[in-house]
């Protein structure tokens, strides 16, 4: 009898623990999943970064953010469908620091030749309000090609977004109802 | 006993004639074989079709996929063996940039092998176990106006001709791409 009670207590404690940990995560994921994201082209700023690196960061960001399932849809820069998406966040990435590495040097010396990238990443609303701002690094120190740094960077950006809390979308969404042949349009504003 | 009188002086001439005929036949055979090989090899050497690796980004093709990059009519096509080709309209290409990169050859088996060499001998192997490639970075728009980037790895000396051909067929090139057609990523770091 004593043993069964103890087991029951332990099981309920474990279940409570799991719920306590899982619930906030689920809530945060649920909140984020209400947003859609559009990835803007990578801005190299003053840094002399090869176009291949900019493209690689951009493409890896699309991949990694889609994998996290934090957003309803992940759209590309310039995608015309973005105008129909109600709660859209724009991910802007600006390169702050870049150290060109060498795969050969890494293989020969182990300690030198690392490729390092530092970017400032911002999640903004359509009207330019910044909801999230982080500085993220991506490096290749030992094995892998130089472009691997862009993959690591994108993964770190996705992780940073996943960890952070995004507010619920509160922007009023506009829906237009066209009048039946009349000159005046009726505009309905819904506040959520 | 019927003997046919054959002059003994004529026998060597016949042999010589036969030998000459056989020699001529051999020469013809080799020549036609060489011509056929040359004809067969010409499409792969032409600037319109070449072996390439999609490092990342080309729509409908997985990263690091090997195949043949070619120009088919008004489209840029990447064909993997046994799979349907992936195509992009050449007129949708917004920019083309060439680059150069040096990569370690042999992949993971080679890396493990190098690690197994005693007294750090693997590092010495790394000095010679790398190969230079050219990269072709292209930016293009999809049917929704979404921005895409793709990076192809080509054998050395092939990318320039291919780029020119794409420009002739209607691909656009930005000012930066035209000015710095060759961006050396690895070489710059190795010269330090």
> Main sheet of chain B, how many strands, which sense, barrel?
8 strands, mixed
Low-confidence stretches of chain A: 21-27, 172-192
CATH topology descriptor of chain B: PH-domain like
| Overall average residue pLDDT of chain B | 77
Shape of chain B: elongated
- Helix share bin of chain B: 25-40%
- Uncertain residue ranges of chain B: 31-45, 178-192
Q: Would you give the CATH topology of chain A? A: Double Stranded RNA Binding Domain
The chain pair forming the largest interface, with residue counts per chain, is: A-B, 33 and 39 residues
* CATH homologous group name of chain B: Pleckstrin-homology domain (PH domain)/Phosphotyrosine-binding domain (PTB)
Determine and state the CATH class of chain B.
Answer: Mainly Beta
The radius of gyration of chain B is: 27 Å
Number of domains of chain A: 1
Shape-level CATH architecture of chain B: Roll
CATH homologous superfamily designation of chain A: Lipoprotein like domain
Description:
- The complex is a heterodimer of chains A (192) and B (192).
- Chain A is an alpha/beta fold and 192 residues long.
- Chain A is 38% helix and 26% strand.
- Chain A has a single domain (26-169), classed as 2-Layer Sandwich (Double Stranded RNA Binding Domain).
- Chain A is built from 4 helices and 7 strands, in the order αβαββαββαββ.
- In chain A, strands 2-1-3-4-5 form a 5-stranded mixed sheet, covered by helices on one side.
- In chain A, helix 2 (51-68) links the parallel strand 1 (36-39) and strand 2.
- Chain A is flat and about 65 Å long.
- Chain B is elongated and about 55 Å long.
- Chain B is built from 6 helices and 8 strands; from the N terminus they run αβββββααββααβα.
- Chain B has helices at 10-45, 107-116, 121-128, 159-168, 175-179, 186-190, and strands at residues 49-56, 65-72, 75-79, 86-89, 93-104, 130-141, 147-154, 182-184.
- The longest helix of chain B has 36 residues, at 10-45.
- In chain B, helix 2 (107-116) runs antiparallel to helix 3.
- Chain B has a single domain, classed as Roll (PH-domain like).
- The chains are: A alpha/beta (192), B alpha+beta (192).
